[in-house]
Amino acid sequence: MTLRICPIVHSAVIPAHNEAHNLPALVAEVDAVLAGMGEPYEIVVVNDGSTDDTSEVLRRLAGSYPALRPVDLDGNYGQSAAFDAGFRCARGAILITLDADGQNPPAEIPRVVSALDRADMACGWRQGRRDSFVKRWASKLANTVRRLVLNDGIRDTGCSLKAFRREVVERMKLFHGMHRFLPALAQMEGFAVAEVPVAHHPRLRGKSHYGVWNRLWGPLVDMCVVYWMKRRCRRWRIVEQEASLEIPAPRAAPSAGTPAVARRAG
């Protein structure tokens, strides 16, 4: 009997930095949601140089959840690099991203994925955000400026709950900080992007890695780079050639004893 291996359909990609206390509940929720979608799946958690017990927790969880694939980076490189590593390791036709802090409800995954029926990438749009006033204010300001400058039409790029067709991430090069501009990067490659309202949970454990200044100054510089890229980007198409065009036949190899390069006489 031949063993039939089903290709992976859904890959959840989750960057984690010092999230050991949040991972057991998160992995259990994501596993239950993806199993309920009825297609082969995997959960790729990228340990981005954590200094807590994240690595050990992932190894232990992998014994209970066969779909879990821990990926350890050799240092702390940031969220863009962690997403990039997860994309390269993921095997699914559809890639789903979310944070490891538990603020992106896994129950919303099917709704975001269903938006791929009309788009190539789908972004969560957080409703009733459960963050501090200062954090919400900084995020709203950053999103407003980005939307005006890049004209990407997306109201909340800071929500990590997103879904992509594989061909979208294969066209992206994620430099440091570029995870904030994934919709604009996808649009530059000619892909359609949709936005889906999703719920938002408060962080129950651990500490946020983002404050006011690293949500404003760094992203502002990165946005200028993306704006330059968008202005310089050219999407081209090859015009279909006539089917009757003849393709030259390959030349026959020289016979034995015949020099490969002809010499002029004289």
Description:
With 266 residues, the protein is an alpha/beta fold. Mean pLDDT is 85; it is low at 253-266. It is globular. It has helices spanning 23-36, 54-62, 79-89, 109-114, 133-150, 166-170, 182-188, 213-232; strands at residues 10-16, 41-47, 68-72, 94-97, 121-126, 162-165, 193-198. 34% of the residues lie in helices and 15% in strands. Strands 3-2-1-4-6-5-7 form a seven-stranded mixed beta sheet, with helices on both faces. It has a domain at 10-130 and 154-205: Spore Coat Polysaccharide Biosynthesis Protein SpsA, Chain A (Alpha-Beta Complex). The chain is built from eight helices and seven strands; from the N terminus they run E-H-E-H-E-H-E-H-E-H-E-H-H-E-H. Helix 5 runs parallel beside helix 8 (213-232).
